[in-house]
Amino acid sequence: MRKPRKEVRERMQEHMAQIMDDLGLDATKEPGLLETPRRFVDYLLEFAQPLRIKEVLGNGFDVDSTGSHSMVVQTNIPFRMICEHHLLPAIGRAALGYVPNATVVGLSKLTRLVQAVGTERPSIQEAICDRIANLLDEHLEPKGAIVVLRAEHTCMACRGVNAPGIFTTTSAVRGVFRDVPQARSEFFSLIRADQR
């Protein structure tokens, strides 16, 4: 978690306590609220993590040393973010795939990438989806990369339209997944098979 200077953290907590006070909630006296300003600041800071891509993806492995040029697909990756509009969470699952060109990465690195981009900063789902695909494309230089995010946004479930249970799906497609329909079709067949 990003660790801001102590005085910055304290100021953030004071601001949160003031907002609560303006709502008629006393964070200095009500037992259930005593730690709420600190907890809320901790929550926000969890979604303001600097992305260190080399730590997340590592250096990878030379494809020739693995002997594999097969499509790599991961599904059901836990995904979380907070929207930049309301600072409320969205929670869902990601599926991604790539066709190696010269480099492959350890399987855990793909999950770490999804988790790291989701907690890098408040954003919108579309931008996070694109960012994951772009990072795969830039750092692995695959023949193609594809990312699908599916999430429920609490900003829709608990406020505004008040419609829980609605999922938003976004996709970002690069290289052969964009240009070769059979590659895209194979990816979607694999993720459908995993959902059964």
From TrEMBL:
Ordered alphabetically, the record's keywords are: Hydrolase
Query: What biological process terms from GO does the record include?
Result: tetrahydrobiopterin biosynthetic process; tetrahydrofolate biosynthetic process
Q: Which Pfam families would you find in this protein's record?
A: GTP_cyclohydroI (PF01227)
Give the pathway annotation.
Cofactor biosynthesis; 7,8-dihydroneopterin triphosphate biosynthesis; 7,8-dihydroneopterin triphosphate from GTP: step 1/1
Reactions catalysed, as given in the entry = GTP + H2O = 7,8-dihydroneopterin 3'-triphosphate + formate + H(+)
Tell me which EC number(s) this protein carries: 3.5.4.16
In what residue span(s) does the GTP cyclohydrolase I domain sit? Answer: 12-192
Extract the Gene3D superfamilies matched here. Answer: 1.10.286.10, 3.30.1130.10
The record's section on InterPro entries has: GTP-CH-I_C/QueF, GTP-CH-I_N, GTP_CycHdrlase_I, GTP_CycHdrlase_I_dom
What GO terms are given for molecular function? GTP binding; GTP cyclohydrolase I activity; zinc ion binding
GO cellular component labels: cytoplasm
Q: What's the top EC group for this one?
A: hydrolase
Name assigned to this protein: GTP cyclohydrolase I
